[in-house]
Amino acid sequence: MATITRSTSARKKRVRRLAGNKRLDIQGLRAVAVILVVLDHLFGWPRGGFIGVDAFFVISGFLITGILVREGEKSGSLSISNFYRRRIRRIFPVAFLVLGVVVTTSYLLMLTSRFQSVASDAWWSLVFLVN
């Protein structure tokens, strides 16, 4: 029995080391949420709400709460501005890339009026005031 326990424990440690700080269970739930959103956009199923989006928000809330709690425990205080600064450093480079590709592609493939609409939407997305 001890051999099985050590083997299982060693396997878990190896998986954690390979995964880094990522929680594979959370990543799996995120994948399910994204798949639900894609299915809704492609086929209109599942009906009755934004199941994938809601799941994604719940997962994000769980992760953000954990980040804030760990920061508070580690430093003894909580800086919301530092939290957002780290998010901006992580999200903005990819956001700029995605928006740039979308605007450039729409310029090349769409009519002028539609491109102007896409460019406007991209601007509002960039400043997080879209909706």
UniProtKB/TrEMBL annotation:
Keywords: Membrane, Transmembrane, Transmembrane helix. Residues 25-125 form the Acyltransferase domain. One of its GO terms (molecular function) is acyltransferase activity, transferring groups other than amino-acyl groups. The keyword Disulfide bond does not apply. This is Acyltransferase 3 domain-containing protein. It comes from Rhodococcus oxybenzonivorans. The lineage of its organism: Bacteria, Bacillati, Actinomycetota, Actinomycetes, Mycobacteriales. GO terms for cellular component: membrane. Pfam families: Acyl_transf_3 (PF01757).
